[in-house]
Amino acid sequence: MLQKKVLNKLLARAFNIPVKVTYWDGKTEAYGQGQPDIHITFNKKLDLKRMAKVPTLELAEAYMRRDIEIDGSIQELVTAAYGQSDSFLTDQSGFTGALLSKFTSSHDKETSKEDIQSHYDIGNDFYQKWLDDTMTYSCAYWARDDMTLEEAQIAKVHHILDKLNSQPGKKLLDIGSGWGTLIITAAQDYDLETYGVPLSEEQYNYTIQRVKELGLEDKVHVMLKDYRDIEQQFDYITSVGTFEHVGKDNLAEYFADVAKYLVPNGRALIHGITGQHYGAGVDPFIEKYIFPGGYIPNVIENMTHIMDAGLQLDDLEPLRRHYQKTLEHWTVNYHKVYDETVKEYGEQFARMWDLYLQACAASFEAGNIDIIQFLVTKGPAGHDLPMSRAYMTVRDNNN
């Protein structure tokens, strides 16, 4: 009885849209004004102590176990919670300190490798089910609203390389090169000699195979190693979705390494998830099940490290809506193979990934997190760049 009273009070101010809730005793309550499009069913009671400490983890695990069912859009529901100023998702005072102390410690090289492989080495077959043919697992760039996901991912790669104003014959390093689309495109379309450093064996093997098939062994070099072990310098560096994985205590070293690996007046395009607000920077559900060891820095943190590393900012571009749309496309694709995923990996795993994709889309939609491209130079800002930003979008305007 007490738990129901507590949940009733919690849910009454949890969302900025009407929601219907059925409790474990079969009784139903409606919260908010209007006709609810979302129906939450609690099949079992929750652990209120865990709810007070780590609400997203308790709710996520209950959903994975089917202790909670959601009839309607998870993305819409989570967005509505973030949009409510006094929701349990927006008031992190009860668990922020614990999260920071537990999840933001330094990562040594072995731990970093284990963290990356725990996520990406689920197997290429899993990601191939719902990514596009480029096998790009990062924010796409929607230069046109009517682009397919694959077109938007290719546009993202070109947007990055165009921003660098890269010149033929130069050397490019991609830190965390994934399945290799960027380094292959840079070699084929920009005549660059490229180097990629994934930590995932699955991604490494996939990229090596693609490079061989395309006959690019003399222009595309893939090394299965930690980026901290690189001993060369490059004209350009790209890094897409990497700084979120290095940990709070390693961010300064990460940006210092970017500077170290650049030649004088070399440029880097750093693309990653960040925040335009102060917050915990971590989520216990994502830390435990999706990205162990992750930490999302805010813009001020990144800019501080960029300046401390002796780099200067050329350009900063938020792409929040682009990642929301990317995640929405992934969710549609994932739902098409959901039953197949249940069969191969089990229902809890399948529900976990569905929740993860939709909750992340909601977080971008609500502005809880952002994704930003930082274009930086190891030298005076704008060195050897056109005076106008127009060069960055010539390709967009011609398509």
TrEMBL record:
- Molecular functions per Gene Ontology: methyltransferase activity
Catalytic residues (UniProt):
360
Organism's domain of life? Answer: Bacteria
Keyword Transferase present in the record's keywords: the answer is yes
Q: Name one Pfam family in it.
A: DUF7884
Keyword terms of this UniProt record: Lipid metabolism, Methyltransferase, S-adenosyl-L-methionine, Transferase
So what family is this one in? Belongs to the CFA/CMAS family.
Q: What's this protein's name?
A: Class I SAM-dependent methyltransferase
Give the species: Weissella hellenica
